[in-house]
Amino acid sequence: MAVDVPRSVIKKLIIATFCMVVLPLLTFFTTNSLGFSSIVSGGLAALAANVVLIAFIVVAFTEDIQVEGDEKKRD
Q1: Mean pLDDT throughout 7-23?
Q2: On the CB side of 51, how many CA atoms lie within 13 Å of its CA?
Q3: For a 10 Å CB count at each end of the chain, is N or C smaller?
Q4: In angstroms, rounded to a whole number, what is the distance separating the alpha carbons of residues 23 and 14?
Q5: Using an 8 Å Cβ cutoff, are 53 and 20 in contact?
Q6: How far is Cα 19 from Cα 11, in angstroms, rounded to an integer?
Q7: Rounded CA gap, 27 and 8, in Å?
Q8: Spatial contact of 41 and 27, defined as CB atoms under 8 Å apart
Q9: At what angle do helices 38-62 and 7-33 cross, to 10 degrees?
Q10: pTM for the whole thing?
Q11: What is the per-residue DSSP string for the chain?
Q12: Tally of CA atoms within 13 A in the half-sphere of 26 that contains its CB
């Protein structure tokens, strides 16, 4: 019962996962080194993580993938 997942979906998932790890860390340490407190840096890092998450959800819902199996059944 294998599911065929398109390459574009896997690619977007990997990019989102990478961004979810890197962007909050980069935001935290960059703002912390600029002299902001740890609380502000943590808040901005959380905001960066939420932006990545919302962007991934929007991309996932707007993506239109047609399954080949469904098209063959209709014919």
Answers
A1: 93
A2: 11
A3: N
A4: 14
A5: yes
A6: 12
A7: 27
A8: yes
A9: 160
A10: 0.76
A11: ------HHHHHHHHHHHHHHHHHHHHHHHHHHHTT--HHHHHHHHHHHHHHHHHHHHHHHHH-----HHHHHHH-
A12: 8
What would the pLDDT profile of 45-74 be if each residue is shown by its tens digit? 999 999 999 999 999 899 876 666 555 555
Residue 64 identity: D
Looking up tokens 């989102």 gives 16
Arithmetic mean of pLDDT over the chain:
87
Distances (CA, A) of 22 to 15, 30, 49, 59: 10, 12, 9, 19
pLDDT in the model for residue 69: 57
**Contact by Cβ (8 Å): 31, 44:** yes
Does 21 have pLDDT greater than 90?
yes
